[in-house]
Amino acid sequence: MALLNARAGFEKHIDNIEWVSIPIQKFWSFRNNQEETIKLLNKDYDCILVGGGGLIEYSFGYKKQETNYKLPFNKEILSSLNCPVFFIGLGINTFRGGSEPSEQAKLAIKETIDFSALFSLRNDGSAGILKSIGLSSPKVEVIPDPGLIFDYSKNRKSQIKKSCIQPAFNSNPKLNDDRYKEPENLKRLKAFADNNKLKAMPHSIKDFKIFKSFLFSADSFKEEVLFKHTNQLVKTYLNIDSIVAMRGHGQLISIGLNIPGLYLSTQDKVRDFSLLNGFKDFNVDIEEEGWCDLLQYKHDKLISDNNFLDSWYQIKQNKEKEWKNIFDSFVEKCVKMIQ
Fold first, then answer.
1. Are 129 and 262 part of one and the same domain?
2. Per residue in 80-104, pLDDT tens?
3. For an engineered disulfide with 68, which of 21, 104, 206, 329 has Cβ 3.0 to 4.6 Å away?
4. Is residue 116 part of a domain?
5. pLDDT beneath 70: ranges in the chain
6. 263 φ, ψ to 5°?
7. Same domain, yes or no, for 81 and 171?
């Protein structure tokens, strides 16, 4: 969804764009074959947009890549391409208990920034992470994640009637262990959803775990989650009045669509977005003592306390114009480079 929203930003300035989608998995199949990556990207393109989420990641399996991180870019690849490459609101994905980037990964990330046409990170604390690994650069801009930028949204609700929970699980057992700290926390999370009659809204097939009830089946989700159907899948958010979001894009998309929520952080990016963008009172971290009781308290408050609900809408309203202006300004700079 994030990259679809970035596309929409370009379409406001350029008519009849022909988009070609290249899933990142395509690059992973090359592993260490930079020539194949260059060949795939060196088509008759006017520009290449890179975006869609936490694409700067360096833990676990990415050490098998020649770049040592998730993206297939470095100096050699970017300097070999015949069109500008724009990086649109990327997130730096770190995991609690995860590893530091290797020197090879740091070099590739630095070269990606240096040899990009324009480079931006999303407003979830990613710039702070970049600084912490010694890679700050004046070239890096901080913009809203494109998942926050919609041309439509849900009307403001005076009362919450239908809520859901948006879970976050990984395929790597260690990541799940580090997210949830102890098995008892998963039991608490399930009990919270059951007690509040919350259906789960997955963002990944990995999210079909522990919960009793989901907004759609795993089989239908496998079809809907395909990139060409993403826009329709996101519109299912418009059927709910509030959310308990655990994934970064569960948090971002619901806020972008004007859907109030609570943000249960099992990953720093969810917590840091809340803290950096005014939603501190709506965040609960699983590392807080008594987190489940606090989550229940805030959930009850969101449903029954109009002042608390109104404060969420006020924060969103105050931020919305700023986010759109920053995002549009970045897109305009990209467009000027290719016109």
1. no
2. 999 999 999 999 999 998 888 999 9
3. 104
4. yes
5. 1-2, 31-32, 60, 223-230
6. -125, 105
7. no
In a domain, 156, yes or no: no
pTM: 0.94
